[in-house]
Amino acid sequence: RAKSEFLTNMSHELRTPLNAIIGFAEIIQNEVLGPVENRQYWEYAKDIHGSGRKLLTIINEILDVSRIEAGDRQINESKVKMGKLVKSCIDFMAEKAGEARLTIVDMTEGKIPDVIGEELAIKQILVNLLGNAIKYTPGEGRITVSCEVENNGKLRLSVTDTGIGMEDHEVSKALSAFGQIETSLNRSDSGAG
After folding, report:
1. Which pTM does this prediction carry?
2. Which of these, 44, 15, 5, 54, lies nearest to 189 by C-alpha position?
């Protein structure tokens, strides 16, 4: 409980100034008060804004985990149109995949049933899996999203890639809370684990 309260308070204390940093960087980037004479300053504002957004995402992820551990996370279940959800997640990540020279293949079209679940949580999971696949797959690689309905009626949604892969002990660490593994690929994008 003490850890959860600490994380909640700290996330609030961090988010308040971070929102100001993001907001002011956005004002400069959008040149709301007039043109920025030196374009290098505009580039710095863009970098500050992007870095601030990444940091805010990590803080929000930590807060989400804290809420889950404390049993305070409310689940908002409804019927989720999985075909539409998978397509929207792939579309959302398509530009990033294209920049990395990767192809995303959707094998779920016409095969994936609707489910009862929390749409936002499922989207977060799928976007995180696609993001990791993009981060750790060398250029000219392929990411495949597929599905199957198991005998017990559960839907298995899979994201596979032609990336560097992990050893068994790395999988255990990656699946632990906030677990991250060191890789031979140097990536600028990081997450909370």
Report:
1. 0.67
2. 54
